[in-house]
Amino acid sequence: MIPTFSSRINQEPTSLDALFALSGRADLISFAGGYPDPALFPKKELNNAFENRIKKSSSEIFQYRSILGYEPLRKRIANYAETTGITCQPENIMLTQGAQQGIKLLAGLFLDDFDGVVVEAPTYAGGLEAFNDHKPTYYEIPMEDDGMNIDILEKTLEENNVKLIYTIPNFQNPTGYCMSIEKRKRLAKLASKHNVMVIEDDPYRELRYTGNALPSIKSFDLTENVVTLGSFSKILSPALRCGWLIGAKEIVDQLSSLRLSYDCQSSNILLEGIDEYLDHNDIATHISKLRDVYQHKMNAMLTGLSENLPTECSFSKPTGGFFIWVNLPESLDARELLNKTRKVTFLEGSSLFATSKETNHLRLNFTGITEKQIKEGCIDLGNTIKHALLSLAI
Amino acid sequence: MIPTFSSRINQEPTSLDALFALSGRADLISFAGGYPDPALFPKKELNNAFENRIKKSSSEIFQYRSILGYEPLRKRIANYAETTGITCQPENIMLTQGAQQGIKLLAGLFLDDFDGVVVEAPTYAGGLEAFNDHKPTYYEIPMEDDGMNIDILEKTLEENNVKLIYTIPNFQNPTGYCMSIEKRKRLAKLASKHNVMVIEDDPYRELRYTGNALPSIKSFDLTENVVTLGSFSKILSPALRCGWLIGAKEIVDQLSSLRLSYDCQSSNILLEGIDEYLDHNDIATHISKLRDVYQHKMNAMLTGLSENLPTECSFSKPTGGFFIWVNLPESLDARELLNKTRKVTFLEGSSLFATSKETNHLRLNFTGITEKQIKEGCIDLGNTIKHALLSLAI
């Protein structure tokens, strides 16, 4: 007989499970996932990179290597970080198994059971999953179209013991909202004042379709209270499983020990392959291609929603990223809607709230599907919502 | 200011840190690591495998894929498991980021704080690191040359609340000992009787240099109380970061949810690369080459130790694996010895005991170095021990 699982384990299927399950169904138009467009992966260039790097390397490329990850790649990321306002050295960087591992490691490093954790409402389900293991005391801060409400954050920090703030400042998952520069400054200052750690999760930064990039929150951090996470998953390929974490040396050193017990280290083959790709390709050119395609898809979805959603609904108008957030009238339940659509699936939003579990929201992804599918899906979604409202009125 | 770390975090450098640090010093002969011989990595064949597989695949090879990992590779592992006495389906298998991640995930799935965990004394440091996070109540079972003392295990299970037993049945890290078939049977029976989970960590199974392979502990498990871990790290390449975990579907399903919060999934590129390698190469032939080279190295070290260690020392005589375990007279401290050797480093054993922290043992690795280095290192080690004994006698 299998012994009982840990009391930390939530045996209910999680929203991430549901998301991965839905994403696999070929018969449906999936607004549910968070996948890049596979047609945009630089397949030939990546293949050349792996082939050339393995060919010219010694056998040591297949050996255990550094826990922090291949140093030349960390140097590149340090240089890139400069463009976001962050000054750091390779020793401040750990290459992680996706940005997800960075969240998990930081949760493990800082959290004791029941510690206070501030999250945006709504937020990324993978963040919540990583924190849940530590039985946190959650404080939800409402999202606004220029980022979380910092007045409420300030009050929360004054009145409660908070250890960690988790935020996605650029094109937030799931709302698509971007935090204003003023809020970034205030957030860094508040974290310093209240001695709170900030996880700045920033996988969508480079996927800005209009306007200018904003400095990272960490660029305003004078007291090492901010750790920034980035990733190649959305701008190159998720199967490279390569994210990064930038923080104080003291934090990165301690995470190295922790990392050993998690999975030892990233694959040196993948890290060197990425380094080789960056040697021979201009990733900026590649990213500008992504921006172009994704902007068209985003606009197609914004148009589709404008044309098809009833006026009782509202939705976010992002300037980048992967997602649009739809607010239904409170009388509608997004979970019920999910069973009523004919062709389209989406991520119903209740599981994206740490505590309030609001049931009248939908997260829609536009990157992983075609413009034709976006158009069709929006019509189906609009009809389903209109029908549900009509049934309600009867 | 950086907030305080979690109370779960051990801020002392761990033995794994020390090991990785020592392994990087080119001026030393390292008996300390646990590295395969890089000259034996099938570099050309692996390069061909990656190149061919990427070339003939769709772009989806670079996309997010299954959480359990590429199914055809899981099918192969299910077939391989048959040869170890295990009957399973691909759905019973998760591909992990090295076997280390398997230990960590299982610790996370089963352990509540202070739960009882049985470990061999000595044991693998990475196992202890993975459990330590859960503040376990450790029960040490002494190692014998045919595996842990099962009488003491039986008594321990009768008298205490134990949740998990962690064992390395083949060519144990660090002793090199192999568990007898009788003990495997008794262990499986006891786990079932007392409703305890067994982690059978088996990365060295294929590296047997003499004698016949023994059935896995899981082959005697009638009640799904055993999970078996394996890995390509020691038989193909550690940089592939590919291990596997075989267990009851209920366990694997629950681990899938947990895995999402850790790092989402393994790299599909690496998994398909391994699958392609296995399509075109006979790994059995490759492994028989490893066995031949490692057996010579092991014999060189056994001879070197016989010729150079004073009679007050004893050491294990393994028939496979990566390690030899040296017992010093109790008057000597292995940690002090480490500072006195001229050319050679080793892993001092105290950190490999969960609680007893015995200080008179050394773990020596013979795979990652040349026979010439083994010979030289044994002379240096012998001289250092003799000198230390002489100083003690004065």
Automatic annotation (TrEMBL), chains A, B:
Membership in a protein family: Belongs to the class-I pyridoxal-phosphate-dependent aminotransferase family.
Protein name: HTH containing DNA-binding domain and MocR-like aminotransferase
Swiss-Prot/TrEMBL cofactor(s): pyridoxal 5'-phosphate
Record Pfam families: Aminotran_1_2
Keyword vocabulary terms for this entry: Aminotransferase, DNA-binding, Pyridoxal phosphate, Transferase
Domain Aminotransferase class I/classII large: 46-378
UniProt subunit comment: Homodimer.
Gene3D superfamilies hit by this protein: Aspartate Aminotransferase, domain 1, Type I PLP-dependent aspartate aminotransferase-like (Major domain)
GO molecular function list: DNA binding; pyridoxal phosphate binding; transaminase activity
A single GO BP: alpha-amino acid metabolic process
